[in-house]
């Protein structure tokens, strides 16, 4: 079964968030093609992932000391209530990512990087050994498709004054690459100059902003409506837990 994990991280839940609008378009298009059974939604701003603590670090080190320990065997290494709470917060997030054939992430650019809500999810999900097969050493996210949808108030492309200021894209590319997602399976879609409609001094860029948003919508629709992906060889398909996206 094809499956989609839909993550939003914009702090703006008013309906005006461009990244949320675009991830919603992706999800709606995807469900129109694939149905709703494999869809899972998580709002990282409405339901924040707690930051890491000592218990998470202690349990992670214990896992590291033993080499590759699959998630199903981590419980046996827990030594106290704090570690049990840390793992109870972590295990469902790991399971959602392992179950997903496609992951769409709304990642507005905040101060040139990712929102804190998304970074907290990244930190917790990246638990040692969770995405590497114990017997084979295979990267379990090989074959998973990741689509990052970013909104930016300014412009950061080649030839712009802020070219090279975008540390969000290389961060996410490196993060998911380290987890095992193939380079060709990580896609970035950006709507730029989103502040042009609000800030008077940027008014002259409104046509460029509109063009960027139109191009992002077209790319989102094309990617979401693509032919269903098959599970990677040696990776069993795992059903996602259905969840309706809030209006």
Q: Could you explain how this protein is built, in words?
A:
The chain is α/β, with parallel strands linked by helices. The chain has one domain (4-224): Flavodoxin domain (Rossmann fold, 3-Layer(aba) Sandwich), CATH 3.40.50.360. It is 36% helix and 11% strand. The protein contains 6 helices and 5 strands; from the N terminus they run βαβααβαβαβα. It has helices at residues 18-34, 54-65, 81-99, 116-125, 168-179, 206-224, and strands at residues 4-8, 39-43, 102-106, 145-151, 186-191. The protein has a 5-stranded parallel β-sheet with strand order 2-1-3-4-5, sandwiched between helices. Strand 4 (145-151), helix 5 (168-179) and strand 5 (186-191) form a beta-alpha-beta unit. Helix 1 (18-34) packs parallel to helix 6 (206-224) and helix 2 (54-65) packs across helix 3. The protein is globular, with a radius of gyration of 19 Å.
In percent terms, what proportion of residues is strand? 5-15%
CATH structural class: Alpha Beta
Distance between the termini: 25 Å
Give the second-level CATH assignment, the architecture: 3-Layer(aba) Sandwich
Supply the number of helical segments.
Answer: 6
Low-confidence stretches: 230-247
Say what the CATH topology is: Rossmann fold
Mean pLDDT: 90
Classification by helices and strands: alpha/beta
The largest sheet has its strands arranged as: 2-1-3-4-5
Strand segment tally = 5
